[in-house]
Design goal:
The structure holds two protein chains of two kinds.
Chain A (H helix, E strand, L loop, with lengths): L16 H6 L5 E5 L6 H14 L3 E6 L4 H6 L10 E2 L10 E6 L2 H12 L2 H9 L1 H9 L3 H16 L4 E5 L8 H14 L1 H7 L9 H19 L1 H15 L2 H16 L3 E7 L3 H16 L4 E9 L9 H12 L15 H30 L5 E5 L8 H12 L12
Parallel strand pairs in A: 1-5, 1-6, 2-4, 2-5, 6-7, 7-8
Antiparallel strand pairs in A: 3-4
Chain B lengths: L12 E6 L5 H12 L5 E6 L5 H5 L10 E5 L16 E6 L2 H13 L2 H10 L1 H8 L1 H17 L1 E2 L2 E2 L3 E5 L3 H8 L1 H6 L6 H13 L4 E7 L3 H16 L5 E9 L6 H7 L2 H10 L8 H27 L5 E5 L7 H13 L4
The chains are: A alpha/beta, B alpha/beta.
Chain lengths: 404, 337
Amino acid sequence: MSHASGRHGVTTPRLEMDRIIDDRRTRIIVCCGSGGVGKTTAAAAIGLRAAERGRQTCVLTVDPARRLAQSMGLTSLDNTPRPVDGVDGTSGGSLHAMMLDMKRTFDEIVEAHADPDRAAQILANPFYQSLSSSFAGTQEYMAMEKLGQLRRAEEWDLIVVDTPPSRNALDFLDAPQRLGRFLDGRLIRVLASPVKAGRPYMKMLNAGLSMMTGALTKLLGAQVLKDAQTFITAFDTMFGGFRERAESTYRLLQAPGTSFLVVAAPEPDALREASYFVERLDEERMPLAGLILNRVHRSPAARLSAARSLAAAETLEVMPNGTGAADGAPRYTLAAAALRLHAERMNLSGREQRVAGAFTSAHPTVPVAEVVALPVDVHDLAGLRYIGESLANQSQAGSRAPLR
Amino acid sequence: MTARDTDWDGVRLHVVTGKGGTGKTTVAAALALALAGRGRKVLLIEVEGRQGIARLFDSPPLPYEERKIAIGLGGPEGPRVSGGPGGDVYALAVDPEGALLDYLEMFYNLRRTGKALTRLGVVDFATTIAPGLSDVLVTGKATEATRRRQKGVHVYDNVVMDAPPTGRISRFLNVSTEVSGLAKVGPIRTHADTVARVIRSPQTAVHFVATLEEMPVQETLDGIAELRAMTEIQVGGIMINMVRPAMLGPDDLQAATDEAELATALKAAGVNGDSALPRDLAAELAGHARHVELQDRERCELTAAGQPSYELPMITDGIDLAGLYRLAAELRNQGAA
């Protein structure tokens, strides 16, 4: 019996990875999903495969595992794409990779949009420093900003990006708008120019405002408020620029050359998040290419069911000592344990398929690609290449587990 | 008297962090259950607005309000002694906005002003422009609950905080420094200093949840190093989560991949007619052996950190309340609570 097509009898379309990366119209691939599901590895594997199939590829990564970063030659966070060694360039492709430095990206925007004096003033402000280094959405915003920059540079014909490990996988979609909304907000406006609030309709608001500024001063101290006002005044000229950039990045994500891949592990939490993500991308009219179901457990001996394996183990365990057991130990102890292990593996695989089945039933049109769980972590190009291959060769899913 | 020693006697605020996907919330909840022995009251706090606790306990979304969510693990001695039912576990989902209103009310009696501030977007202001401020408000709520007394007695024996992930934990806990960059004087600064005193006292310990994989282990070690660099913050235990029982030792595993042996055994058990099966089973075992080897290596790296560690089994059928109690019992039996 086959487990490859067992998802509640529904035929799930297969994700055709090579079709996506070979299509020259594909200019951006965004790998998103909740934390700990292998987004970075997937992005790197796709980037490598695309490069070796002839694309000029750049992988933008946000928070790679140390050894994975090293495997791509990323030793420092210098915000510049670096060529990756060891890539097979016989098809004419190339691979660059970079790690995002969010503060530097933010600083560069400030420097690009303000005159030198003002830029220096902003960069030195404690509020700017806090905002640029630890605002919960800054990393997401800057990842998208960098993506826009790389895209506009036209040096690469394919950019693969993984999204930051946010508490919420959608933060990178929301953060630019949130930051824009905040920088555009009514409060920040009046804080920036309290003296200009002389118009009649402002009177009502003014009463509330003085109460509010009073409370804020009480809460934060007068210096904080003053710093904030300085910051906002200095930043004022840049608001328009920020909003514009956020909007153009957003449009870039909606454009036909962009493909979103949702990465998930076959676990309830990750797939719940993936479901939510798929729905949200649809609402935002962002082009979803499919789901990568990562770290799926498969058995090369799947035709021996858990029940039969367990029964065989029990049979062996109660069997009297056979011939050849010189030390008197039951002859089949090891084999029985092996069969129990197999049964456990089959149960795990069955559970994963049930969980995945719930997703595909809810989203029957979303193409799916599975990547089997490797017994060891990926931290070299060979490992990435292997993942890229198994992403592309989905017809073989379920037939063989990796024998690396 | 319950004269049972645990590894964390004297710790009242347990901060639980971990990389995404390692089961941080699950372990925090299990720890709360384990701490809530008979007659004890424990508060479980979540700070990231994901309603993970509600989902875990199969309850409707938690409001900003301390609510009883479960009964602790029975008996001070855990399942080994029939000690009667456990104490109460309360839960609270803290958000910066609610924490700010609380703060204004508690210290200035300014709740109504606070609501007006919320409408005007001041809270957005405070939490967006200066995340350090929002962290201080959130951790402030946890330390307030830890210190809260009624008639001279602590209201909660323990507070367990499901904290932000490892990558953000040192910044999150370093409230005083984060805020001092922004506010050199003023009440919020004073508040931050009070919070920092609790966090940097022996009353608080920061536990790390990890799984036996490369990245979670690396992040745990990095996180521990970062916290150690911030002296005075007590690094707690390492909770190794989702451990699969090793059914065979390394040597046995090697031996078990003998195809001829497997073939004989399968025949003896009556599984016939598939000549390739022994080979495929052996391949599966070989993969498993490599995985076990990797796990052992990661385990060694974790133990080299020199913190007490606890192993929690993989709960295979999804975490439900029974699974949580099982993990709680493990934590208690291993001395974490």
